[in-house]
Each structure stands twice: as C-alpha cells, then as structure tokens.
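As a warm-up, study this chain.
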Amino acid sequence: MRGWITDCHPSDDDQEVVLWIRTAEGHMRVQRPLRPSFLVAGKGLNTLSRDVEGCGARASMQKARTRLAGPLEDVLRVSVEGFQQMTRLARTVDRWGSYRDYELYNVDLTPSQRFMLPRGLFPFGLMDLDAGLRSLDSPLRLNYPLPPLRTMTIDPVISRPFDPRPDDELKGISVDGIILKGDEEGMLRELSHMVDDEDPDIILVQRGDKGRTSHLFDRAASLGLDLCLGREAGVRSGPGKSYHSYGRTVYKPPALKLKGRIHLDSSAFMYSEGGLGGLIELSRLSGLPLQDLSRLSPGTAISAMQSDHALRGGYLLRWKKNVPEDFKSVSHLIVCDRGGMIHQPRPGIHEDVLEMDFSSMYPSIISRFNISPETLDCDCCHSSEDLVPGLGYRICRKRRGLLPEVLGPLVERRRAFKHMARTDPARAELHLQRSKLLKWILVTCFGYTGYRNARFGRIECHEAITAYGREIMLSTAEMAADRGLRVIHGIVDSLWLQGTGDPEALAEDVGARYGIPLETEGRYRWIVFLPNLHNGAGALNRYYGVFEDGELKIRGLAARKRDCVGCVKDFQTRALSAFSLARDRVEMAEMIPEILEMLRSWTDRLSSGEVSAEDITLVRRTSKMMDEYRQFNDNRAAAELLASFGHEPLPGQSMAYIIRDSTARKASHKVALPEFWDGVYDRERYSDMLIRSAEEILIPFGWDRDRIRSFIVPQISKHGFQSVIS
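Now compare it with the structure written out below.
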C-alpha cells in the first residue's frame, strides 16, 4: 500500500506524534512514539548531566558539529518525555548557565521535523506503507504524484464586516456554493452532515483564521451542539499576536487547525499567492505540514529548508543566535552599507521603452558566487582570489556554502516551472502556482541574510550580495550602451531601455558573463514615470505604462494600495484604462478632458449623495492599542467605536469605517461603521481623495491639484458641493 502524509502533529498527551496519511482508498491515522531531545555544549557537562537527570530527563554524551564546517566537539544530549516539557527544561538549563555558559541546540525543531527528517519523509511525498513508511519520492522531483484530495469551501454568512463576536447570529452558511438557510441549529446540523457525507480532505474558509471558522464553533457551543469539522473532535489552536515588521505593525490571528483534515484560510497570504498547488510544493520542500505552512511566512519556510539541509549534513541548530556584526570602521560602513543600484528616472512620458529584468537575481548571485555565512572570510582560504567587488571579502574556494546548496536547486526549479507553464497548457495554472511561491521564497532568502534573528543570517552576506548586484547592473548598463540601448531607469534588478539595439544580443552577452538570465519583460508603447511627491525628482517605483499588446502595468498608485477607498479605485482604474487605448503622448493628452469628466462624475455623485457604503469605506490597519494613540485621528476614532461594540482591535488588525466628519471630536460623529452607516459622510474629505488621485496620474501633463480644483471649481461644504466645468 502507498500513501502520502498530509498532516503531522503531537498527540493530545504530548507523548507521541500523530500522522494522517492519504491513500488511494481513503485516509489512515498512525500514531508513533517520539522522545524529543536537545543538545548542550559548554563546560561542566558531567555536572549538568546529573542535574537534568534529577529533573526526570535522560542525558548522554556524544560528539557533534555545532557550527557549519566546524570541528567535532563534546555535547550533552538531553531527552525528555514530551515536547512541552522539553521547552521548559531547555529554559531551565539556559538559566542554570546564566544565559552564557551553555549553548543549546535543536531546541526549537517542530515535532514534524523531529519525526520525518531522520526517516527521509516529507509531507505529500509518496511512501510505501507496507515497508514501514519508506519514502519513494524526492522533494526535488518536478513531476510528482499527488493524492486524490477532496476540497470543501465553507463561507459563514455574517452581517458584520469585521471579525464576528460570539453572540452574532449566523444569517446562513454557504457550502460549495449551496446556501444553507433557516434557524442556526438546523444550519449547523446540516453542515455537520454534509462534512460527514462528503468527507473532504481540505476545508477552505474565507477569513477562517480571522474569526469565521471559530464563530461556527462558538455558535454551535451556544446551542449545545458538538460541531466537528475534522476527522476527530477538537481543534489545535494558539493565541494571536501583534508584531512589527518592515516599518508596519502586523497582526497574526490565532491559527485554528483541525484534526485529520486540513483547514485553510483562503484569505491568508500564502494561499492567496500560490493556491493549493503552490502550498503543496512548498510543504514538500520545507518539510512543514500544509496546515502549519499556510499560516507561516515565506521566511519561515526558507529557514526550515536551510535547517533541514544543515541537519542532514550533521550540524546542530543553535537555539538562540548570538552572532554580532563584525567591527567596521566608519569609512568601511560608507562603502558596504548600501543597497541595490538605482538609476533615477526622469519624470514624464517616455515612448517605445523596453523593460528587461534579471531572473531571480539575488538568489542567483548567492548560488553563482558561493555566498554563505561560513564561506565569507573563511579560515581555510586566506589567499582566495574570489573577492567581493568593492568590499574585499574573501569567498571560500574549497567548499560549497549552505545557502548556495539550498537556493541553487530552487532557482533552477522555478525556471523549470516557468518553462513548463509555457509548454504544458493543460497544467499551466498548477506550474504557475508553484513558480509564484518559489519566487517569494527566493525573494525572502536575500532579506533573511541581513535579518539579525535569521538562523543563517549574516549582515556581511547581505552586503556582498548587493555589491555583486551593483556591479552586474553597472556592467549591464555599459554593455547596453555599446549595443545602442540607453538606460532611462533602473532599480535593483530591472532596467528600462530606449534605443534601436538588439535586446536578445544584450541578454546573451550578460548571460555569458554572469550566468544569470536577463529576460525581456516587454516593450512599452509608452510609460509614465511619476515625480516624488516631496521633491519632484523621479520616483523609483511609481509609474504606469502600456505594453505593445495593450496590457497595462501600474506600480505605486493609489489603485494598487490595499487601503484604497472604493471611489478612488474606480476612478483611477477607469482613467488608466482609457489612457491604455492611446498610442502616444499626443493621444494621451487628447483623453484628458474625458478623464476629467470621469472625475466630475464622481464629484457629482458625492455631492448628491448617490454613493454606497462600499464606495466610501476605508480599510485601515491599526498600529497600536486604542489608548496609545496621542492624536484623535480617524483610526483612533474607529478603534474607539469598535470597542463600544465589544471589539477593540489589536495592533495590526484591519478596521473598516466611513468618515462622517473629519473635524469632529467625538468618535461616533467622526466615523461610522459601514453596517451602521446613517448616510452622512465628509464630502470634502472624499472629494480631496479623488482630486489627489487625479493629480497622481495627470501631473506629468501639467495638471496639479490646484489646476484640477480650479477646473472642477468645487463649492465644498460638509453638506455638499456643486461641480461645474470651467
């Protein structure tokens, strides 16, 4: 018999692991014992051994490599009964060593990693069950067999636009498009029967982790029903949390995981980007069960791949990273602390422009030039001639680094999937899903080299990668000039070129020199580079343009932003679609009156009150707790209003609201919740949003905000305004 592992998690008593296996005939539940362990390095290990045994754990000495490419050294293996006990004991040992005398390893490995990795198993990898879970597959296989999975989509119908409260009644339940109606108890019983009859392997719920799925359980409990959506009763769940990342506050909702079935939140980033096909691909490569992976970041997935590779190579994984940045002089910091190359564009309209991009540039640099924490300025190659351009870091020539070994196959794998999408139309969507999530993994791996908490990060690697990137971009610009192509904009790994030169010949030259493909993204009929809002210089990532085939490309505009209000999104989208019909700047200029009429149409609708709640609802992310706001702004007012309904948002959570009067000092006067909206809105504020969005796309033609206002001539008040064409 053959099958695939679809999930792996600790048992309820925390003593064993539970495997859920899908076969051609159905599903199997297998429970296996597993005694987790961690390792300790340092002085006085014999004394420590007696101390941990006094806590009920087992201890034994062995030799292991604690650093990548490091020598063997004595370590103490500590084995415990359960996973939670292991974490508690690890913290105790760390405290005994005053947080400095002992180095702990392999503490934070997941139960699935502990069970599957030593056995050569991985999620959705084909196994021989008769031979005792023997793997018949490889994570790097391109065309791999998959189990026959059944999917069910459940969508609770709730009147509230934000996360539901336990006492909010269900208005209905959609199951694979079938709407269940009636009283709550009847709907929940029917849902349970449908799950039992269909026996799905995967349950998809839009915003499932954001309260929709747990709301089904809350309503069932309030009615005295035992709702079971898994193949076993109960769920695995954890608390939500807020954290700060790349300048913004993010909220991660509680993960609700079923037993025996896979619960996926279809609004989660990983699923929305790569679909089921991409998630399965990443689950196979990372060794993380699908239900866990769908709630994690691409950075966690690439870290898991790197950890698996290190463990297979016989190295230990340090629990708490403590690798400070190397000392650098001020002059050296000036040289090395830079990012990718930037060629600032000239704001305005440019015709007949070619866009060329490097395929997976930074991951390819890591693989091509052997950049890894242990290969930079290594102890074995003091006379290495492989030097990072401009920085002088030496690169090891005797061994392949961990990062290149992990990323090299992924770069080639993504190229293969992109090729297969072109040559295999029947499965093109599946190949594109896999390629898209691999892209996120490859993008993230570069950022993680400079992330201080990344297990295999080192800031010098980050500096080396960007140094090679700058060198390659500058050389490519010189080669382009030699072939009659002029760079009018460039950023990190993309170039916009004008001229009569041959782009295919340029790509061949660059590929031969650096071994990194340079691909043509497309040729624009025209492209508009927009000015920086503060200084008027060319903005690096704010532009719109039309390819020769009529496809519109937009970056950095309001319509592309998640918090864009509906009226602005509609206006800008229609305006840019009108522009896309133009062949050159002359025809674009001729369309400006038409676009101004679109703007006037929206301002008239705002004046007359002919707008829906969807047209003027803003969705904004709160950055702090309600009482931490120093100013009484829209977000503070919305948070205060939500709190009055028993739903105070946590930092990073999204809030939907309508601005009633931006000058008001009382929350209920300042904003309104969409479902309780009384028809009052701040018309001046919304008209200003529209005019700003018009300026955003018309400024290259000389239409700034003041000129647009004077043309539309608004007579604005909180109660309405009239718009006339000047």
